[in-house]
Amino acid sequence: MGAAEGWCLLLSLALSRAAETGPWAAERQWRAVDVVLDCLFVKEGALASTENIGQALLVLRQVPVLDDGSLEGFTDFQGDTVAKDNPPVTFEASVDQIQLPQAEALLHADCNGKEVICEISHYFLQTSQEVTVEKAAWFIANVQVSGGGPSVSMVLKTFRDAENGASWHPTLNLPLSPQGTVQTSVEFQVTTQTPSLNSQLGSSPSLHCGFSMAPGLALTSVEWRLQHKGSGQLVYSWTTGQEQAKREGAALQPEQLHRAGDASLTLPSLFPKDEGAYICLITTSLYQAQQIIQLNVQASPKIGLHLLNKTPLPTLTCSITGYYPLDVAVMWTREEPGKAPVRVSDASFSSLRQSAAGTYSISSSLTGEPGSAGATYTCQVTHSSLEEPLGASIWVAPPEKGMAFGVLLASSLFLLALLVLGLQRWQATSPRSGKILGSCSPASE
Fold first, then answer.
1. How many domains does the chain have?
2. Residue 266 lies inside a defined structural domain of this protein
3. Which domain holds residue 355?
4. How far is residue 433's CA from residue 68's CA, in Å, rounded to a whole number?
5. CA 371/CA 368 separation, integer angstroms
6. Of the candidates 187, 214, 233, which is a domain's last residue?
7. Do 150 and 47 fall within a single domain?
8. What residues contact 154, with CB distance under 8 A and at least 6 apart?
9. How far apart, in whole angstroms, are the C-alpha atoms of residue 327 and residue 323?
10. Per-residue pLDDT tens digits for 82-117
11. What φ, ψ does residue 101 adopt, rounded to 5°?
C-alpha cells in the first residue's frame, strides 16, 4: 500500500477545498480529500492465480472527512505520479452520489499501523430490469482495514462512450481520461464497522450493516443469513412492507433503513448456537452487495481450587466451569518459600461436561508434595474470553511436628509389640529347664 513517493498514509490524500454543501458541511469542519488505495485487479472470469491478477489503483475523489489538523501539506492525486513502466489500472471514482462513512478509517490506516486490503473485479448485474449494458460497465471494489477495522463494498459504474480521439484501455475495452484513468462513479456501497465481533453469552449484540445508494435506486430487500460449520440458514428477511424473523427475537429497525441506511441486526440473549458468519445482503432495484460479520460467542470461565485431603499426601482439585468456546489451557505451578515457581506437569483431568446452556466444565487434580517447608500451588487458566490468564492459589502446609511424633511413637509401639509377641512364641517352643523330654522313671519292685 502507499504511493511511490513513500507517503505516511497508505492512501494519497489531498486537501483541495472545504465541503461547503451537502450533509457534511454542518456544525463540524469537514474537508474533501482524495483517497488512493493500492488494489489487486481480478480479471473477468479469472481464477485466483498470478497470471490473472494485476495491479490497480482506486482513487476516491473528494471524499468528505473530518479535518483533525493532519491534512495540511497534502496535494491532489496526480496521474503523472503513476509508474510509466507497466502502469496499474487506475479507477478514478466519484463519490458525489453516496456517503462513505468509513473514509476516515481508510485515511489513517497506515499511520495507525494497519493495512488496507483492496480487490477490484468485474460486477455483473443481477436484475430483470432492462439496462443498456453496451453503453456501461460495472466493477465492484471490496476494501477492508486489517485488525478488525471497517469493511466496505462499492459498486462502480463507468460509461463506454468516449470523446473523439480518446485512448482506450488495451484489455478492458474502456475509454481513458486524458490522465490515463478509467473514470467511474460509486453508485452503491455496503459497509460494516465490525467484520469480527466477540460477544458474551447471554448478551444482545447489534451486528452493524450500513448502506448508501445513488438517487433513483430503490431498496427492495434486506436478508441476514448465518453460515456455521458447513451449513446455512436464514436468520431474518425484510422486503417492502414485510419482515420475517427465523431466529426468535432477531430484529432490525425498518424506519432506519430508508432514513439512515442502517440494516443492523440485533440478536437478543446469545446462545452458543448463534455463533458463525452472518451475511448481510442488501438488494436494490439494480444492485446487490453484502458484508460478512464473524460473530464469536464467549463465556469466561470461573475457577475454584480446593484441598480435598491432607494426609498422607494432599490432593488438590481445580474446577473450571461455565466457559465457551471449548478450548481451555490449564497450568499448575508449585512455589516453595523463597524460591521461584516451578511448573508441575503430572496433573490429571476429569471428563468434559457440558451444561444445558452449552457451556463447558472440567476439573484438574494434582497430588501435592508440600515438603518440609510447605508450598503454594497455583492453578492458572487461559481462555480466548480472557484478556489475561485467570488463577487461583492455595497454601499446602508441611506435616505438623506433633503428628510426626505421634506417627513415630505409634510405629515404635507397634515394633515393640511384635518383639514381645515373638519372644512369647519362642519361649513356648523352647525345652524347659530340669526336664528331659520323652523319659520316664523305672517302676520299683
1. 3
2. yes
3. 302-396
4. 119
5. 9
6. 187
7. yes
8. 93, 100, 140, 141, 143, 186, 188, 189
9. 9
10. 556 677 899 999 999 999 988 888 887 877 788 999
11. -70, -15
